[in-house]
Amino acid sequence: MIDPGVWPSEQPGPDDGAALDPGLTGQSDRPVPGIDNGFVAGYRVRFDEAGPDGRVRTSALLRYAQDVAWRHSEALGFDRRWYLERGRWWVVRAVDLEVLGPVAMGRTLRVSTAVTGHRRIWARRLADARLAAGALAARIVTDWVMLDDRGRLVRIPQDFGLSFTNPELPGEILRVELPSGLPVASEIRFGVRPHDLDPMGHVNNAAYLDWVEEALEATGEGVATLPRRARLEYLASAAPGDEIVVTTWRDGSAWAARIARASGGELLRGIGRLGPRPAGEPDGKAPDAAAISDIAAPLGAIAGVPPLD
């Protein structure tokens, strides 16, 4: 049973929700300076979205970012029917998520989104989740690719450039390379569960993050440390009937993870950190795939992402 007394300073005040929630339908916004597109909506942290500590789960923040992205698309006329008629679908290829502060159950977050840049076949979105006073609680960067009905990568239609005005970005889509030479910290196995599936019949992107955190908790350490950071690269989709293996490695507060089918085939690679950057690491250090400790670099080091407040 959750004891609200363990986090009284995080309890919502009588005006927190009303002052912050822009409405269930959301509204147009310009959250990123210099980017002429955006959307914002309020998300109240539900009981089932919080962990035993009474705070929002990391995966719930990822779900908010995905949902507000779809609502932004729908508001500009690109709804599910539009995609279905053209046989085109956005699929998440990579995520970089940083949780900066505690968000208690019952709080309403102001979640904003904008497409901050693109290349030929992918687009980058930034989502910021803010508390009532405006403090940044979490930041989520998502790289989306567009597929056709046969699962092939296709160019982004010109319509999007007109509706989601954004610059062409330097660099490439976010990637994750796993380190070598570290002993395995944990390994868990299970079958894909019905509640993991989304309306497309695939495991939802946020479910993979739940799986990673479940495996990290098997190492004997909690996953609710603040701040915390995760970068995930999605390689393939898990499907009903798949047996899943999640393997983790630890290097101090840094971690790495792989999700694969037991029968073979990688589904996801991830790296992250539970806690602040070690003293002495420069703020501007770019992630180096050779070592998981390098995930300490701030999100501002990613093209198309402004510095943290």
Give the class-level CATH name of the largest domain: Alpha Beta
| Average predicted confidence as pLDDT | 84
Nearest-angstrom radius of gyration?
19 Å
Kindly report the name of the CATH homologous superfamily of the largest domain: Hotdog Thioesterase
**Separation of termini?**
36 Å
Number of domains: 2
Order of helices and strands: HEEHHEEEEHEHEEEE
Please describe what this structure looks like:
The chain is of the alpha+beta class and 309 residues long. The protein folds into two domains: 1-173, Roll (Thiol Ester Dehydrase, Chain A), CATH 3.10.129.10; 175-301, Hotdog Thioesterase (Thiol Ester Dehydrase, Chain A, Roll), CATH 3.10.129.10. Helices cover 16% and strands 30% of the residues. The chain contains five helices and eleven strands, in the order αββααββββαβαββββ. The protein has an eleven-stranded antiparallel beta sheet. The longest helix has 18 residues, at 58-75. Residues 1-19 and 281-300 have low confidence and may be disordered.
Outline of this structure?
With 309 residues, the protein is an alpha+beta fold.
Name some characteristics of this structure.
5 helices, disordered N terminus, Thiol Ester Dehydrase, Chain A, single chain, 2 domains, alpha+beta, globular, 309 residues, 30% strand
